[in-house]
Design goal:
The structure is a homodimer.
Chain A: E1 3-8, H1 10-13, H2 20-31, E2 36-42, H3 46-59, E3 62-66, H4 77-85, E4 89-91, H5 93-105, E5 119-121, E6 125-127, E7 136-141, E8 144-149, H6 153-171, E9 177-186, H7 190-196, E10 209-216, E11 219-228, H8 231-249, E12 253-256, H9 261-271, E13 276-280, H10 286-291, H11 297-300, E14 301-307, H12 313-317, H13 321-324, H14 330-348, E15 352-360, E16 370-379, E17 382-391, H15 394-413
Parallel strand pairs in A: 1-2, 1-3, 3-8, 13-14, 13-15
Antiparallel strand pairs in A: 4-5, 6-7, 7-8, 9-11, 9-12, 10-11, 15-16, 16-17
Chain lengths: 427, 427
């Protein structure tokens, strides 16, 4: 089945906003085993919209159109869709009543121009929008089934999941149920994981499990797409394969599905009734900024301190100035970071402390630019530390250090070794 | 002139990566007064590429193709371009020599498959790539002039600026020179600025200055696009208009052109030989994370402290516990934040301190969610403080508070009032 995505709107066409709706939709379709073969972007212009609808109608089996369903004069999707299909517009009393209720629930009067949003091409199938006033609709134009969706990301996502994906899967004749299982890891490169998971697809019968990856440094997402006649079949096919993925990737899996590294860390700390002190240098507050916005972080994250000169840690957290001097190499570096983590924990009266000091190389930025990383974790029971070196440029080093710090804390909380060698390390 | 952008590659088509090359190119063309009317995205597939090239060749005057110039078998742009133009491929000895020199300079042997990158359609005009091995080229297909560019963003940007924009401007018959002047502001909404700048275009003769906006909350970018026969003409037309923009937007302009808010703040601190202490709560380290990565920040940013419970400021920066309790309202709030800023400055022995405490409303997130913000700045000369309230959701509040904190510090360093009312405030 040939699927196209057609994005409309001057703001997307002119690059004023980056088209994240496109990548969201395409990725979501791919995750369900549906392939997008063509993407089109046009502005709020009648002639161009009509030409784009006609071209897609002649080429594709299914087309998702995004945008142009709003109440203003430059929202043209319904009108041009009707023209392309050779039908008129009809007033949809049911959707109009829904809109009136939407405004009434918010104690607002509905502006007159919202009536336009209840005008749909004759013969169109309404697609519900439970979170906004722009209903979607499906309509056949030429040889293709068109699905019209709102530009507001939250509304689009809901409609795609609830209304459009089931219809597309039915059109594709996909039997039964599809499920996407995701593993997030840090520390292994894509080709390394691909190699570790060799033969994994063959564990399930009939090609019912498909393996895929999405790399977004520093994390890698490993995906298993499973097809089965029903939910029980999904569970039966997935269970041995996911167990094997967990076994092979082991300690490197930091979270699954919608969970995140920072969320995993916060959940573990919360379960333990713990409080956290952070010390950052080169990472400049980015570890704190990952944890602080999460619900519940306010009771766990007690204090974060960011310094650029390690000597500042003496007044900042009461570290011993004499123990801050000296080499970041080898044993001396590990002793230094252990002391910093311990001092931070004491200063904040926290149960846990994570300290990360990065010593960037001198010289200009570039692919060969790197730095030495010291990570220390302190608890009542003592300290655990590791050292590492990452190359690849200033920003690469910074992102890698943030991730490594959070991942070491995750490992420590899960009683896993914190110093397993990772692929991004240079020694 | 009708310009199209045609992006190629499976990773972009399937949404694995967000297509920022598209928005970069479209925005850059708009900035030069050139309009993109159509965008297409297709994968690394021969038949689809050919169909896409042919459709664009029949529709557009100029087409920028992005991607597909690499050395691997799925890089098909040269080959399909030749097919669409009805010509063969020819070996470009000059570019091959350039590639050999590129590898030699890096002490690496050139792999055999890189030879492919020197095969160009017959009659193509080479477009230089000084930062990579993929040369671009221009070729007429059908009625359109095609410009082929590499997918690596850094290489694309250089080629667009140096090679393609001058050719497109010449094709468009744009006389003389074009210049884009940009102002960045915080605190005024787009419609407000539009109103403040009424009549500004009319100050220049012959429509030679065009006004535009780009809103990316919390900042707004105001753009003046100037056309003139030569550089002297640009300067003459721009000078009175930019002076008037500065006069009307006044203290709200935080930076111009490529400068940033955090860069402006750091530059002012550096000029003053100052050092900075930061205190953050709900903003969770995001102010520190804006300043810390900038070159030179390591000598200015002495210490940042992030806490979630203000009571923690007593042990963290030696604040007086008694003065941390009490209301965030009115005079009491201002006294509290003044004390916090002062204590932070003393604790870090810094010349300047910026403290920002946010008290988010209770209850669930949503468009009506807001919070109260206290901002204090301390120097040797004393403290300056302001209070504000922002509504619009947790993330909106957080972003707004970060920007307001940095902007207050900018204003203070420039000896401007820090408590001018902004459009995002609710009182």
């Amino acid at each position: 089945m040939r699927i196209e995505i057609l994005c409309t709107g001057d703001e997307v066409l002119t690059g004023k906003i980056t088209n994240t709706n496109y990548s969201y939709m395409a990725q979501k379709l791919e995750d369900m085993g549906l392939s997008v073969v063509w993407g089109t972007t046009v502005g709020d212009d009648r002639a161009t919209l009509l030409a784009a609808f006609r071209a897609a109608a002649a080429r594709a089996d299914a087309v998702i159109v995004n945008g142009g369903l709003g109440p203003t004069v430059d929202d043209l999707s319904q009108e041009i869709a009707a023209e392309a299909a050779g039908v008129g517009l009809a007033f949809h009393a049911g959707w109009f009543a829904t809109m009136e209720a939407f405004f009434a629930a918010r104690s607002r009067a509905m502006p007159a121009n919202n009536r336009k949003q209840a005008m749909l091409p004759e013969g169109a199938e309404l697609l519900d929008n439970p979170v906004g006033t722009a209903c979607g609709f499906a309509l056949t134009i030429g040889k293709a089934r068109f699905f019209f969706t709102p530009g507001v990301p939250r509304e689009l996502r809901r409609m795609l999941d609830d209304q459009i994906l089931p219809r597309l899967l039915a059109m594709a004749g996909t039997p039964g149920v599809i499920h996407l299982k995701r593993f997030h890891s840090y520390g292994l490169g894509e080709s390394h994981v691909d190699q570790l998971l060799e033969g994994i697809e063959a564990m399930a019968p009939d090609g019912s499990v498909k393996l895929g990856f999405r790399a977004h440094y520093p994390q890698l997402e490993t995906k298993l797409l499973v097809r089965a006649p029903d939910a029980a079949g999904i569970a039966a096919r997935l269970a041995p394969v996911e167990a094997e993925v967990r076994r092979r990737l082991g300690n490197f899996i930091l979270a699954e599905d919608d969970a995140t590294l920072e969320g995993t860390v916060l959940a573990a700390l919360t379960r333990a009734g713990a409080t956290l002190a952070l010390v950052e240098s080169f990472t400049g507050g980015q570890i704190a900024a990952r944890i602080a916005p999460l619900p519940g972080a306010e009771t766990v994250l007690r204090r974060a301190v960011v310094v650029r000169d390690p000597a500042e840690l003496a007044p900042a957290i009461g570290a011993d100035a004499a123990r801050l001097r000296g080499s970041h190499e080898d044993a001396a570096g590990l002793a230094l970071i252990a002391h910093v983590a311990d001092a931070a924990r004491n200063a904040a009266r926290a149960s846990h402390a994570l300290a990360i000091l990065v010593d960037p190389d001198p010289g200009p930025d570039g692919i060969g630019f790197g730095g030495s990383i010291l990570i220390g974790i302190a608890t009542e029971a003592g300290t655990a530390c590791r050292a590492a070196r990452i190359l690849g440029g200033r920003e690469w080093l910074r992102l890698g250090a943030v991730e490594m710090g959070l991942d070491c804390l995750r490992r420590h909380l899960a009683e896993l070794p914190i110093d397993e060698r990772i692929d991004f390390e240079k020694r």
